[in-house]
Structure formats: structure tokens, C-alpha cells
Q: What sequence folds into this?
């Protein structure tokens, strides 16, 4: 039984990617296994842990809850696409390093996507708003506090830079 | 946790979607936001032969404020519904309910219609629909029909949607009274989890502070979300005094048929129903009084 | 070193963080081997059944399916997995043979081109079962006539002993008061966000099995080789795989033997990444499931004279190290208190449930919970303030090193100081006022305190204590440090890491000793063939053991550099001064050999080397755990872990009296782990440990139905706390250095988790105290709290 394949064209991290995929290939698996963008991680495959978060058309979504065929014609940004155009870390990524907002690193890409989504719509979030924005991203290592500090720091730095 | 193999069709219009549904029958499953469906498919509890994707039907994505109601397309993302200020001004209960629905990521993808069609008795949007007497427009191969919320939900995860029908839009009545207040109360294990019990209330007061209109309901306490129009009617003419609020909440709780599961016994749910019902009524009153 | 540290103890960025924030982590699921095939498992739906037949034809006929392996073949071709106690008939394999013993046990393994196809085929494997009796409740399992989980073992008891240390009965006879109660620790686990995964590839020419795994396990290569009937040097485990969290748990030995066997048998690389359903039910990674029958003998002045602790732990249907999780707490059995006599009766029992694995603290957190509930109950009995009771019983700082009745010596500590710091940090009198005001307003409010130990260092003498046939006293670790021809420094670690920052640890320590910038020091992970021996990051041991080894290797290099300079300046080492990697004659700064020059001499200029010195510039350091090597006495006394970190938690909670919903308002943790090599890393692990402890206290439970089905096998039902459930936490540090370690550091990998459940439980109980009810079972769910509140109100005649 060879599964039927569907043509898709998706803009991933600014680059148009085309492929032929079975319908049941999740967006997460397509990114990881076919495009070798392994920064997006799978923790549960049923939409709870948030490790698989990517931007779809600029908004954080769970890539384990989408099929790659559904992304046809859309824009996806993964953690690999967060860096600046010269390849250096974004302010947010750098802030995560500054406050040690991670340990094992497994939930981190999802956290970054969620935090990025927050800061794009709310450049001056309260701690409560930060916690809510990452409320759908589970972490077992950090207890979240240094992550909240990182997002707060990033917001401050980005505000400074835009002055 | 990979799903079974399936074929995929991306509908470009609701007419096309209905045609496919009519042709394929049980073998086809509609997918909108997928936040409820895809986990079930990942666990192989749902095994469609054909997945019919309606996410790209532009005609199903809109929020239209009209004189007496707000019409919302079934595939409108929950996040957009939550953010829409014009909508929040006219149907405040929706934004209040959505604050309890999942997380940012799930609301970015999940749709208003998807949650209603999924009909989880613990879900917030079905409860809001019952309390506000929303009207669902179902489109089938032969035409459209409108179903009131009180007739739409037929059981746990079940609606009266026919196999060849697709939810097209939902009409949310606007209460015109100037002193209208609403509230949504819920107990869940963690922030964003399914409700153990939820309560929703909307009240309108006259200039003297007497209740002129009331709507009230409970979720997670029966096979479907419940609304209590007759109990709510007892509030009309009152000032929502403590005793009358308590008695309405008490009688509503007594009329529920909750189940037991890992997190809550039926007795606990009935108790929460009374407590949250009263809290929702008091909070709605407090908002109306402002 | 008498001057303050230059790098140790400073806040510096870690070496590990950059790769993870850029998505460049290398986890096992990220590794693609050419031609790799994928495994999915067929699991038993029954908790106890005979396997009548397994039909694999339909599955094997599916396109893309390579093989379907069952227990018949697998158990004949491999050896049973290691068990920590003396129970040779309790065999264990990755696949069941003949009998299944828990719902979720793996019965067959499908190998296919993709994971999706493997799952399709797994559904087509036809297994016929005949249900057998089952036993789910541990107390029923202990009772006569219970169904035997392993018939050949003759009983459901894996381990039982009653230890009596000190004059226990006498203390109970003479004490003013006694009390007794049961404390129950519900089954939970660390549940890392990454499941366990392993990939293996067999090279038939080299006769070598390469293994990449998400692993945190001592003796992993050895046990893998042994079960596969291979020599030890036929297995190469790659330790440079990033592990997505483990906290003790990722032992994965059954998965690895399975995948290793398949790779060899099929001649292709094979990978198994557990999906979450497989992981929760069949991964064998549940944690302690334990109740304690506690008895305390105490005097009216609050002195606790003796304890009797009966601990029964349900390890599930099979055992690896899990029964030993009752043994580690022997090393801190009286907590931080001066209790002179303790009776400890551990029982490890089997039931038809998912097996248990090592969880952060290896049994210390449940034990601390039971001890701290005891303290609060004693205080309540006497009408004494809970803090005062603890003050009276805490070991005093002038009493260290302190020998406890079960034979361990606590190295150092100042428990009163840490407690005082925590109380000051939270402004305890103000907090009491806040609580009392809340109570006057009709709310349920409580403050919880716990003062607990984190034994660290990993001298796992409980292995020998619980199984005299296992004469193991070596708990070593190691580090290799090289300085290359260009003068750059590389450190080599012989184990994997799962977020503890070992690369940063080694670079910091080596940089400190050699006075070179840690940022310039590269730290890599070896593989099991070229690694120096390690016992992996368990038992909160790496700061001590890897830190000590890195320091030891760096010191050798420093001495070598001084010796080279002494030879070249024709003087003695005492005439020289080492600074920042350069060596100069004291008082004659012009007579100096710089770091680069010294490296060059070592690598290239043999004619300038001291006679007899090895060329090149490298050093290894392998050492035994401090205080290690001792054997238990006949009455079961032995030195366990060498270093004792201490934590004092203070928590403020409120419970909504109408719904039972708890919320944590304030949280302060006083923490003393001696010298912190990297404060950000230590704080991070402590904060994570507290979050984990909050989960165990309020949310997480592997719940079983009466008929042995796991009811909470997904992330929808197994409730890991999110950022909305974990409050802001303030940590206040204290430092009593350990006299046993290089810099005075103690371990801290389990910090927070060891004291948080106890503190939250005590806070909840303080909140319930005014309505005269209590709860001693974890997790304290909303339902459990409401049932207590509602029963208390009914008793009081309130609605």
C-alpha cells in the first residue's frame, strides 16, 4: 500500500519549500524528518506540551496538530528562523542565554515561539501575561521562573533598542 | 502516535464541502482547527478514510456585527473572536468564555464552529451558545437550516448535524438593554484544562437595578451543556438578592445529571454547579451594575 | 586556595544554552542513520493474562514492514535484565513471554520503513490472551492468597527487612507521648517532555553495536552488552546525545536491548522513539508508589526520641533498580534531626502495574514528606509552634560531622541559619498576620514549613545493604583534560547530560584551577569505548565527582607546567609562581615561561622536558566517592552519600473552601549546597525541582482503575504543572562548605524536589487545621481537598 502523495508548497523560514507528502504526515514530522529542521520537538503528539510550537502565518500554533498538507500556501517559522538575518541570535534567544532560561533544551524552541508571539503583539507584557503566553508550554527542568525573566529582559532590551 | 492513512480534500467552498460529505458519508470527517480532532486521530480513536479540510474557505471566516445579532463564520479562529472589540462590546460573554478555552496556541488555530460541532459537554463555547440561545446555520447538500442551541446539542460529542451538513455560521443574539452584564466561571485542574464544571450567566437590569432579563447555564454537569431559562426567569423582577441567587443556583445544580471521572465525582460536580452558578450570577450582576 | 574564587560561584552564561536556543540540540530523534528502520510496539491491554498465541503474518505481509519480533525469539536470544535485589526468578525482558503482567506491557515489536507504517502493522498483529487473576492493590498483594505476579518467585515481596538502629523500643516505652499515622505518596514520576528513545546500528565486520540514546544510567553499556551476550567492548554508547530531561528516570535498558537485538538481527539501523502513550504505560518509568506507617515517640518538651517507619512501596510488575529506592533514604532516615533511635521496615512489593524506575532523589522525597508530616503532627499534638519544634530537634552546627543511627555521617551544615534566612526572607511574622487575617475573613489559609536533606554524592551503599550478593562499593567518576599544541584546553566527560550543565561545570572548574577563561575551554562527551569510567549523573553526584575529577586533572596539568618551568629555570617548584597559566620565578618577572611556550615545550621540545616526564600535556583523574568503600554492618549500618545539602521551604497557600481549589501565594526556599560552582545552574535546578514537587503534591498521579487499567496515560490526565500553576519562588542561599570535596561543593541536582512536596503538604494541612481535618495522601487534588472540607463541615453541622 503506497500512500497517496499530495504536493505542497510552504514558505518555511522565508524559503519556499515544495514537497510531496502523505496526508497523514504531521507538520511537525514534515519539518523535522523531511526538511531536517530538527529544532521543533515532539513531546506528546496530542496537543498539550507545546514543544512542537511553530509560527503559522505569524501566530504560534501546535505543529503536531496540523498536517503538512494543511500548511500548503502558508508561512511557517520555526526556531531555526528566529535568528537575525546575519545569523546571530535574536534578542529573545540571547536573553534566554542571559537568564539561563533552559536546562535540557527540549521545550525551549516551543517556549521561544510562544514568547516571540507574545512580544510581537504585546511589547510590554506583565509577568502574568508572560506566564499565560507560555501557559501552553510545559517544562520540567526550569520551573518557568528564569524563562519569565528572559522574556521580561527581552522586552526591556527590545524597547531600549527601538528608542 | 501517527494516525491511520487517509485521503485529503481541501474544500474551497462550503458547497463543495457538502457535496463531498454527501458523497462520502461516514467515511469523511470535517477538519477545521483540528485541536480536538487531531489528538483523537493521533490516538487512532477516530479513523477517517477522507479528511475534508474547510480551513481555507474564506466565506466561513468573518465576524459581522448586525442590528440584533453578531454573525460569526464557523471557521473563524477563536483568537480572532477573542480579540474583536466590537464583538466583545455586544456579546461580552464570548470573550469571557474564551479566556478559559485552552491556550494561546490552541486558540490561534481552533475555530468557533469547530468547538461547537465537537460538542464536548465540558466545553466553554457550547455552554455560551446555550446560555445566549445562539443559532447555528447548517448547510447541507440541499440547502441551509437554522437550529437553535437548545436543539443543537444532542448528547456528549453529538449534535443534530446530518452527515452531509457542515456548520456554516453562528448567530449570537445581542442584548440591547444598556445595563447588561455577563460572567463565566469555571473550575478546572490547571489553567486551560477542560472544565470540571463551568457556569455562564448574563443579566440585564433596568434603571432601578431590577433584573429585566436573565440567562444562565452550566457545563460539565450532564450529557450536553445545560441552560435554565425557567430558573433564570425567577431572577426577573428581583435585585439578585443573595437568597434568590442561592436558590436558583441550588435548584439548577439539583437538576443536573453529572458523571464521575478521574478528577470529579458526581457529588463534587453538583456541588461545584451550585457554587459556580451562584458566582457567575453574582459576577454578572456586578458587571451590570457598573 | 585562600583567595576568593575567580570563576566558581559567579553568574556566567552556560556553554550549553546557545545550541538549544538556536535549535541545534542533538537529541536522539534528531539522529538519522542511513537506511534506518522504525519500531512500534504491540502492548497488552490486560494487566494479567496468558498469551495464548501471537499471529504476525498479517502484519509482516504489509508493504514496508521488515519484521515482527515476539518474546518467544527475543527472550531466548537475550538475557534477562539486571535486578537490584536478590530475586533471580523475577526475570524481565523488553517483550513478554508466555504471560503479560501489566496493561501496557510490550508483547511484540514491529520494524518498518516508517513509524507510521510500524503502527499500522502493530494494529494487525493478532494476540490472543486468556485472562488471569490480577492484583492491583499493594496491601492485597502482601496478604496471603494474593495472585502471584511472578509465580516462580513464590511471593509478591521483592524485599523486606526490619532495621533497628538504636534503642527504639526503650525510647517508645519511656517517652511522654507517641503518635501514629499513615502518609501516602501517590504514584507519580518525573515524566520528562522528551520520551525515551534509542537508535542502534550493528557493524558485522567490526562486530560493534553503536548506540545513541536519551540515557541517564550507570552501567548502561555494560548491562546492554551483558543482556545481548556481547563482550563489553562490542557496545559503543555515544554520550554526545542531548537528553531532553531525565531527573533519574531514563534507564531505557529494555528498550536498548530490544533495539540492539533488532539492529543486529536485521542488519539495519533501528530506532525506537517512544510515543507518549507507550511511554506512560509501557516505558517502565513510573516513580515511587509508597505508604509510610509512621510512629513517633516524643517528650513534652518536643524532643523526638525515636521513630518507627514502615514503608511499603509498590514497584509494579517488574523491577530493575526500583526496590533500592527504599534503600537510599537509609542514609538520611532521621532527616536533619537529632533523633537517636530509628526502626525502618521497608517492603518492596509487586503488583500488576507498570514498573517503577529511579526518580529524582531515589526515594528521599517521599521519605522527607513522611518525616515532615510527622514533625507537624507532633507539633500539633503538643500545641507547640512547628518552627520551634524543628529548632529543638535540628542538628546543631557545632555537632558536625554528625553520625546518624543508621550509620551515615552528615558532613557539614548549619540548619538553623538556613531556616532563619528563609523565615526572614518571607517575613514570617507578616506572613502569619496575612494568614490570620485571611482566616478571620473566612478563608482557608495556611503556612507550610519543611526542613529537609538532600543527600548527595552517590555512594550507593544501599545496593550492598539490600543485596549482600552485590558486592559493589566503587562509585567513581573521572575527567580527562588536554591542552593541545596551540595551548587550547579540552575537557572530556564520560557520560551523557540532561540539562545539568556538565560542560559548564567542567569548564568552570578547569578554568578556576588553571586560571584560564572557561569560555575558551571546550568540553566534549566521550563514547563508552574511549571514556574514562563514570557512574553517570545520578544521586546528585556530578558537582562533587565530576567537579572533583576535573579539578584533579587540572591540578595535575598545573603541576606539570610548574615542573617544566622549574626544570627550565633550574630551580625548585617553591621558587615559582603560577599565574593565569604563566609560570615565573618569584620576584623575577622577566624569568617567565608563558602558557603558550609551556604547551609548546610539552608537545614539541622534548629536549627541554624534565627527565621522566610524559610528553604532551594531558591528565586524567579517576577517583572514588569520598567516604566510599565501606561495607554494611550486620545490623545494616553503613555510610551512604557523603555530602548533605539542606533546604528549608516556607509556603503560603489558600484553599477555596467552596471548591477545594488550592493556590500557592508565596514561596521561599532556603538552600545550602555548600559552594555553588555555577549559581544560575543550581538555582535553575532548584526552581525546577520545586515545580516538580508542586506537581507531585497537588496534581500528578498515575491513577489505576480497580481492574488494573492506567486511567491517566496521556498529558490530558497526567497533570504536569504549567507556568500558571507554579508561583514565583525566591531562593535564599547559604553556604556551609563540605570538608570532603574540592571546593566545598555539595550536590544539588535534586534540590527543591526533596522538600517541596513536604512543605506544600504541611501548608495545606495548616490551612485545613482550623476546620479540624487533615490530609496525608498525595496528590492533594481539588476533589480530595473538597471531600475533606465538606466532611469537616458536615461534622460541624454546616452546609
A:
Amino acid at each position: 500500500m503506497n500512500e497517496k502523495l499530495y504536493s505542497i508548497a510552504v514558505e518555511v523560514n522565508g524559503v519556499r519549500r515544495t514537497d510531496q507528502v502523505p496526508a497523514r504526515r504531521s507538520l511537525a514530522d514534515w519539518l523535522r524528518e523531511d526538511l531536517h529542521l530538527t529544532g521543533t520537538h515532539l513531546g506528546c503528539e496530542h496537543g498539550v506540551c507545546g514543544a512542537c510550537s511553530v509560527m503559522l502565518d505569524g501566530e504560534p500554533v501546535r505543529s503536531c496538530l496540523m498536517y503538512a498538507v494543511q500548511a500548503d500556501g502558508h508561512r511557517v517559522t520555526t526556531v531555526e528562523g528566529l535568528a537575525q538575518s546575519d545569523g546571530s541570535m535574536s534578542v529573545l534567544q540571547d536573553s534566554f542565554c542571559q537568564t539561563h532560561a533552559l536546562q535540557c533544551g527540549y521545550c525551549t524552541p516551543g517556549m521561544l515561539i510562544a514568547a516571540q508571539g507574545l512580544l510581537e503583539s504585546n511589547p510590554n507584557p506583565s509577568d502574568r501575561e508572560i506566564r499565560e503566553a507560555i501557559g501552553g508550554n510545559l517544562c520540567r527542568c526550569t520551573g518557568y521562573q528564569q524563562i519569565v525573566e528572559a522574556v521580561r529582559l527581552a522586552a526591556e532590551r527590545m524597547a531600549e533598542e527601538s528608542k | 502516535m501517527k494516525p491511520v492513512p487517509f485521503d485529503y480534500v481541501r474544500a474551497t467552498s462550503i458547497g463543495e464541502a457538502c457535496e463531498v460529505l454527501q458523497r462520502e458519508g461516514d467515511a469523511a470527517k470535517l477538519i477545521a482547527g483540528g485541536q480536538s480532532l487531531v489528538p483523537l486521530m493521533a490516538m487512532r480513536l477516530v479513523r477517517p478514510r477522507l479528511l475534508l479540510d474547510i480551513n481555507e474557505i474564506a466565506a466561513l471566516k468573518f465576524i459581522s456585527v448586525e442590528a440584533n445579532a453578531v454573525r460569526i463564520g464557523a471557521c473563524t479562529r477563536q483568537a480572532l473572536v477573542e480579540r474583536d472589540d466590537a464583538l466583545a462590546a455586544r456579546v461580552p460573554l464570548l470573550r469571557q468564555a474564551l479566556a478559559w478555552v485552552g491556550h494561546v496556541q490552541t486558540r490561534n488555530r481552533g475555530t468557533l464552529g469547530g468547538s461547537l460541532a465537537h460538542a464536548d459537554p465540558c466545553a466553554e463555547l457550547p455552554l455560551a451558545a446555550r446560555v445566549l440561545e445562539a443559532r447555528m446555520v447548517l448547510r447541507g447538500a440541499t440547502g441551509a437550516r437554522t437550529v437553535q442551541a437548545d436543539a443543537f446539542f444532542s448528547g456528549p460529542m453529538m449534535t443534530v448535524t446530518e452527515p452531509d451538513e457542515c456548520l456554516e455560521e453562528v448567530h449570537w443574539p445581542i442584548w440591547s438593554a444598556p445595563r447588561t452584564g455577563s460572567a463565566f466561571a469555571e473550575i478546572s485542574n490547571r489553567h486551560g484544562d477542560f472544565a470540571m464544571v463551568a457556569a455562564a450567566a448574563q443579566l440585564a437590569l433596568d434603571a432601578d437595578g431590577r433584573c429585566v432579563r436573565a440567562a444562565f447555564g452550566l457545563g460539565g454537569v450532564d450529557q450536553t451543556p445545560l441552560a435554565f431559562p425557567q430558573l433564570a426567569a425567577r431572577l426577573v423582577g428581583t435585585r439578585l438578592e443573595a437568597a434568590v441567587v442561592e436558590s436558583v443556583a441550588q435548584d439548577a445544580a439539583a437538576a443536573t445529571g453529572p458523571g464521575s471521572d478521574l478528577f470529579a465525582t458526581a457529588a463534587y460536580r453538583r456541588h461545584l454547579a451550585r457554587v459556580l452558578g451562584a458566582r457567575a450570577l453574582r459576577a454578572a450582576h456586578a458587571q451590570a451594575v457598573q | 586556595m585562600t583567595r576568593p574564587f575567580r570563576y566558581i560561584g559567579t553568574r556566567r552564561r552556560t556553554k550549553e544554552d546557545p545550541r538549544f536556543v538556536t535549535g541545534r540540540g542533538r537529541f536522539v530523534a534528531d539522529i538519522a542513520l542511513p537506511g534506518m528502520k522504525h519500531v512500534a510496539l504491540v502492548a497488552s491491554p490486560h494487566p494479567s493474562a496468558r498469551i495464548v498465541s501471537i499471529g504476525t503474518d498479517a502484519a509482516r505481509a504489509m508493504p514496508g514492514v521488515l519484521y515482527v519480533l515476539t518474546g518467544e525469539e527475543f527472550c531466548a536470544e537475550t538475557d534477562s535484565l539486571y535486578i537490584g535485589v536478590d530475586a533471580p526468578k523475577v526475570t524481565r525482558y523488553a517483550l513478554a513471554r508466555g504471560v503479560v503482567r501489566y496493561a501496557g506491557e510490550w508483547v511484540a515489536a514491529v520494524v518498518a520503513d516508517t513509524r507510521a507504517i510500524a503502527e499500522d502493522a502493530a494494529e494487525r498483529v493478532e494476540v490472543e490472551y486468556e485472562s488471569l487473576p490480577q492484583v492491583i492493590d499493594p496491601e492485597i498483594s502482601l496478604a496471603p492468597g494474593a495472585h502471584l505476579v511472578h509465580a516462580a518467585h513464590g511471593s509478591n515481596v521483592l524485599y523486606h527487612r526490619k532495621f533497628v538502629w538504636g534503642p527504639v523500643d526503650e525510647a517508645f516505652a519511656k517517652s511522654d507521648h507517641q503518635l501514629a499515622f499513615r502518609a501516602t505518596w501517590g504514584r507519580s514520576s518525573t515524566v520528562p517532555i522528551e520520551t525515551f528513545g534509542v537508535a542502534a546500528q550493528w557493524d558485522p565486520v567490526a562486530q560493534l553495536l553503536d548506540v545513541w540514546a536519551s540515557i541517564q544510567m550507570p552501567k548502561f553499556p555494560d548491562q546492554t552488552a551483558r543482556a545481548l551476550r556481547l563482550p563489553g567492548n562490542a557496545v559503543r554508547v555515544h554520550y554526545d546525545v542531548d537528553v531532553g530531561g531525565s531527573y533519574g528516570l531514563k534507564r531505557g535498558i529494555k528498550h536498548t536491548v530490544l533495539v540492539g537485538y533488532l539492529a543486529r538481527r536485521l542488519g539495519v539501523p533501528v530506532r525506537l522513539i517512544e510515543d507518549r502513550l507507550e511511554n506512560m504505560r509501557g516505558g517502565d518509568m513510573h516513580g515511587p508508589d509508597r505508604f509510610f506507617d509512621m510512629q513517633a515517640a516524643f517528650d513534652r518538651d518536643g524532643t523526638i526520641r525515636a521513630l518507627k517507619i514502615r514503608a511499603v512501596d509498590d514497584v509494579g510488575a517488574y523491577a530493575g533498580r526500583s526496590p533500592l529506592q527504599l534503600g537510599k533514604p537509609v542514609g538520611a532516615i532521621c532527616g536533619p534531626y537529632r533523633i537517636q533511635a530509628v526502626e525502618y521496615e521497608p517492603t518492596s512489593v509487586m503488583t500488576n502495574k507498570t514498573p517503577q524506575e529511579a526518580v529524582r532523589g531515589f526515594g528521599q522525597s517521599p521519605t522527607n514528606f513522611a518525616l515532615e508530616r510527622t514533625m507537624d503532627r507532633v507539633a500539633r499534638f503538643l500545641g507547640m509552634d512547628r518552627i520551634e519544634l524543628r529548632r529543638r530537634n535540628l542538628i546543631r552546627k557545632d555537632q558536625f560531622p554528625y553520625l546518624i543511627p543508621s550509620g551515615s555521617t552528615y558532613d557539614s551544615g548549619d540548619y538553623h541559619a538556613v531556616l532563619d534566612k528563609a523565615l526572614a526572607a518571607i517575613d514570617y511574622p507578616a506572613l502569619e498576620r496575612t494568614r490570620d487575617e485571611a482566616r478571620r475573613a473566612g478563608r482557608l489559609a495556611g503556612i507550610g514549613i519543611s526542613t529537609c536533606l538532600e543527600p548527595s554524592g552517590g555512594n550507593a551503599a544501599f545496593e550492598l545493604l539490600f543485596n549482600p550478593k552485590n558486592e559493589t562499593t566503587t562509585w567513581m567518576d573521572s575527567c580527562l583534560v588536554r591542552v593541545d599544541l596551540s595551548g587550547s584546553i579540552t575537557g572530556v566527560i564520560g557520560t551523557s547530560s540532561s540539562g545539568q550543565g556538565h560542560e559548564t561545570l567542567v569548564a568552570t572548574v578547569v578554568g578556576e584551577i588553571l586560571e584560564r577563561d572557561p569560555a575558551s575551554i571546550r568540553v566534549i562527551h566521550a563514547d563508552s569505548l574511549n571514556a574514562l569510567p563514570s557512574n553517570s549523573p545520578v544521586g546528585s553526584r556530578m558537582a562533587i565527582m565530576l567537579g572533583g575529577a576535573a579539578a584533579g586533572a587540572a591540578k595535575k596539568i598545573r603541576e606539570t607546567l610548574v615542573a617544566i618551568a622549574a626544570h627550565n629555570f633550574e630551580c625548585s617548584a617553591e621558587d615559582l609562581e603560577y599565574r593565569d597559566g604563566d609560570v615565573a620565578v618569584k620576584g623575577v618577572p622577566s624569568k617567565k615561561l608563558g602558557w603558550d611556550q609551556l604547551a609548546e615545550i610539552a608537545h614539541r621540545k622534548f629536549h627541554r622536558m624534565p627527565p621522566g616526564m610524559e610528553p604532551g600535556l594531558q591528565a586524567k583523574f579517576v577517583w572514588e566517592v569520598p567516604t566510599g568503600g565501606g561495607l554494611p554492618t550486620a545490623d545494616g549500618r553503613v555510610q551512604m552519600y557523603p555530602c548533605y545539602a539542606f533546604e528549608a521551604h516556607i509556603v503560603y497557600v489558600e484553599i477555596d473552601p467552596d471548591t477545594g481549589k488550592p493556590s500557592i501565594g508565596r514561596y521561599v526556599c532556603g538552600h545550602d549546597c555548600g559552594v555553588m560552582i555555577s549559581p544560575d545552574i543550581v538555582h535553575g535546578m532548584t526552581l525546577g525541582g520545586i515545580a516538580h514537587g508542586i506537581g507531585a503534591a497537588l496534581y500528578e498521579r498515575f491513577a489505576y482503575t480497580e481492574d488494573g487499567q492506567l486511567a491517566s496515560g496521556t498529558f490530558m490526565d497526567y497533570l504536569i504543572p504549567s507556568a500558571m500553576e507554579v508561583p514565583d519562588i525566591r531562593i535564599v542561599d547559604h553556604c556551609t562548605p563540605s570538608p570532603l570535596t574540592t571546593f566545598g561543593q555539595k550536590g544539588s541536582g535534586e534540590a527543591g524536589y526533596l522538600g517541596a512536596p513536604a512543605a506544600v503538604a504541611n501548608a495545606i494541612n495548616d490551612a485545613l487545621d482550623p476546620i479540624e481535618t487533615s490530609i496525608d495522601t498525595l496528590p492533594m487534588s481539588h476533589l480530595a481537598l473538597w471531600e475533606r472540607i465538606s466532611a469537616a463541615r458536615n461534622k460541624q453541622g454546616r452546609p
